[in-house]
Design brief:
It is a single chain. This protein has 706 residues and is α+β, with helices and mostly antiparallel strands. It folds into 6 domains: 102 residues, Phosphorylase Kinase, domain 1, CATH 3.30.200; 189 residues, Transferase(Phosphotransferase) domain 1 (Transferase(Phosphotransferase), domain 1), CATH 1.10.510; 43 residues; 59 residues, no CATH class; 135 residues; 111 residues, Immunoglobulins (Immunoglobulin-like, Sandwich), CATH 2.60.40.10. The protein is built from 18 helices and 22 strands. The chain is globular.
């Protein structure tokens, strides 16, 4: 039977009996906190104090959790890692309980950590004094530095995963959701790719390194240190200080937080945050040891003089506002993060007056969202994730996901693909794969070297082709110019000789005319003059021919130069990037569900100043960009409603900045083909403009971005 606990219900786990605790603000409701992967219930265990039972959703019930629990127990005594002391409910040790409640398979029993999460502090905009900000940042830096010194990393640091016992009178901060923790001899039970608002630009590639926490930790430390500034609290986006798409961008929130850090704690700490914010890799971010060194031992005198808000001198847990929580949950729902929205709606429901209109409205909203999160949707999500792993040739991961789909529904099929057929193919590939992995590693290295060599040869060949074409054009033009000069020189010499001969003939004729008299002299002179005129016409004809030959040679040289330029241009054009290739949705594909994910590929890797512009528009609309991204995947995105949509991808490069501070862009590639798909999702979706960045400034000229 499904696990739907009631307040006071007893669970027998090994030799201890536990009771489901009531929510402190809603006595008839079990005290549970729902997250993306699991729901955590509070259990009462008598004098031993409360315990936490983490019940995973079907997709995240992994046998590897039992192995992980054994390996991480040795770290339970490190600061902030009390949840490493845990018991995993397995069929071998807890068969009776699991036969009664199968949903508890691989659930985790661990210590209950008192205190709010950092996300609750952000959502409620709870004010802190400078001393509290410094204390929280110091405690978190100490926890993260200790992990780093032991070769460990949490790998999914975010506001919901940091608890603050200090704010309820206890000590320190604590980390939870450690199933993806990195460490010696560990294997991740759950893959981590960063959380919105805290994910580095490289996080989509996977976070599984000793440096995995450095960027997210820097953002959390900056939030804590700046939270004593009213301007920072007022500017916060919601469950994180930064809106997710602002991360590592030059935004007003970033500038405000940096200014606050510098004014409150000095340029050293502000510089550590700026260093991480502008980093290209996680290893470029500051270590947590560097943060500890620069954190002051006490609050500066100027900040000590500041008085807390009236009535808050001894307050640590003000009652949050249900309306504010509803607004935060609505934002999460619009982003498609339904599981997180349910969690926040439940918190608001616990605060709403019993039987009030708000409580009834919240019950309807939660019920609707839970229907949308039914196992059928999870099965579809499992299948899509398995198919994506199959396409990436991640056979082990694909097998795990597809096997879970087949276990739930043996004949599951989607878009003409059967889960069982894909699973058989994956298993065949795993069996056929060589057991000696190093062979594949060497082969991959050989292919990499060969590819680099081919690319180098192609580059050199292109350069040689351009150089050869240019040299041939110059040589041809030079030779023709020399021939023309020689012809002109010969014509000039011949003309000079002819003019000399004419002059001599004329002088002889004049002398003869003077020496002779009568008709014979006159006739002789006329004959001489006629001969001179004929020679003159001959010279003029030769000069005309020489000029014509020179013009012909010039035309040939110009034509050769033009041909050389054309050859060079063609060689350069061959190196220009092609348009992106669209992968999915396919042309004319029919889609349903809450969201759409777009995938494409491009012939080369983006440079640091380049971005993909994702362009999506309805049939009745005009082409418009909805987001910029450096990944070849964008989503999930919620269409405005049912109908026909078009999409394409364009690569843009930043070319400069105008005097008013706006950025200039130009197209790097031709626009991809335009594809269309039909969407039949129910209910209104978030408007496309909600995911679109600020408008692109238009650059004048033929390369202007449309």
């Amino acid at each position: 039977m499904p696990f739907q606990p009631k307040v006071g219900e007893e669970l027998q786990i090994e030799n201890d009996t536990y009771q489901i605790a009531a929510h402190p603000m809603a006595p008839g409701m079990p005290y549970g906190q729902e997250g993306r992967q699991a729901t955590v219930y509070q259990l009462l265990a008598g004098p031993a104090g409360p315990r936490a039972l983490k019940v995973f959703k079907p997709r995240y019930r992994l046998p590897l959790l039992a192995y992980l629990a054994e390996r991480i127990e040795e770290y339970a005594d490190l600061p902030g890692l009390a949840v490493c002391r845990r018991t995993v409910l397995t069929p071998q040790r807890h068969g009776a309980l699991l036969r009664q409640y199968p949903d508890l398979t691989y659930a985790v029993l661990m210590p209950w950590i008192q205190g709010p999460t950092w996300m609750q502090v952000l959502l409620e905009k709870r004010s802190l004094t400078a001393a509290q900000s410094l204390e929280l940042a110091g405690e978190l830096a100490n926890v993260l530095a200790t992990l780093e010194q032991h070769g460990l990393a949490h790998c999914d640091l975010s506001a919901p995963n940091v608890l603050i016992p200090t704010l309820v009178g206890e000590k320190g901060v604590a980390l939870v959701d450690i199933e993806q923790m990195y460490g010696p001899g560990l294997r991740p039970a759950l893959a981590a790719a960063g959380s919105p608002g805290y994910a580095h630009k490289t996080a989509p590639e996977g976070l599984w390194t000793p440096e995995a926490d450095r960027f997210a930790g820097a953002v959390l430390l900056a939030e804590m240190l700046g939270w004593c500034d009213e301007r920072v609290r007022s500017a916060a986006w919601g469950e994180n200080y930064f809106e997710p798409r602002e991360v590592q961008q030059e935004t007003q929130r970033y500038k405000l937080l940096t200014t606050a850090l510098e004014g409150l704690w000095g340029t050293g700490l502000a510089g550590l945050f700026e260093r991480g914010w502008h980093s290209d890799t996680l290893s470029e971010c500051a270590t947590f040891g560097e943060w500890l060194v620069l954190l002051p031992q006490e609050v500066p005198t100027a900040l000590v003089a500041q008085k807390p808000e009236p009535g808050r001198e001894n307050a640590t847990l003000p009652v949050p506002d249900a309306g504010a929580l509803m607004e935060a949950a609505q934002r999460l729902e619009q982003q498609g993060r339904l599981d997180k929205a349910v969690e926040i709606y439940r918190q608001a429901q616990a605060l709403a007056p019993k039987d009030s209109a708000m409580a009834q409205e919240l019950a309807l909203i939660i019920g609707n969202l839970q229907q949308r999160l039914q196992p059928g949707d999870e099965t579809q999500a499992l299948f899509e994730a398995g198919r994506a792993a199959y396409e990436r040739q991640e056979w082990a991961k694909a097998k795990e996901l597809l096997a879970e789909v087949v276990r739930r529904q043996a004949g599951y099929e989607r878009n003409g693909q059967q889960a069982s057929a894909l699973l058989r193919d994956v298993e065949h590939r795993l069996v056929a794969a060589p057991s000696r992995t190093w062979v594949w590693v060497l082969l991959a290295l050989a292919l990499l070297v060969a590819g680099a060599a081919v690319l180098y040869q192609q580059t050199q060949q292109t350069a040689r082709t351009r150089a050869t074409a240019t040299a041939m054009a110059v040589a041809t033009a030079t030779a023709q110019a020399r021939n023309t000069a020689t012809s002109v020189a010969r014509a000039t010499v011949a003309a000079q000789q002819t003019y000399t001969a004419v002059a001599r003939s004329t002088a002889a004729a004049q002398g003869t005319a003077m020496a002779l008299s009568g008709p014979r002299a006159t006739a002789h002179a006329e004959q001489t003059t006629t001969a001179a005129e004929q020679e003159t016409r001959t010279v003029l004809a030769q000069e005309t021919a020489a000029v014509a030959e020179q013009a012909t040679a010039t035309a040939r040289a110009q034509a050769t130069t033009a041909a050389a330029k054309t050859a060079t241009a063609k060689a350069g054009t061959a190196a220009q990037p092609s348009a992106p290739t669209l992968l999915s949705p396919g042309n004319g594909e029919s889609l349903s569900g809450d969201t759409v994910t777009f995938r494409w590929q491009w012939a080369r890797t983006l440079k640091p100043d380049e971005h993909f512009d994702v362009r999506v528009w309805p049939e009745s609309g005009k082409p418009q960009g909805i987001a910029w991204t450096e990944s070849t995947t964008f989503g999930p995105w919620r269409p405005e409603g049912s109908g026909k949509y078009y999409w394409s991808i364009l690569v843009l490069r930043q070319t400069g900045t105008r005097a008013d501070g706006t950025k200039e862009w130009e197209a790097v590639s031709p626009e991809s083909e335009v594809r269309w798909f039909s969407y039949a999702g129910a209910g209104p979706g978030a408007a496309a403009t909600e995911t679109k960045p600020p408008p692109l400034p238009t650059k004048p000229g033929p390369t202007a971005y449309p």
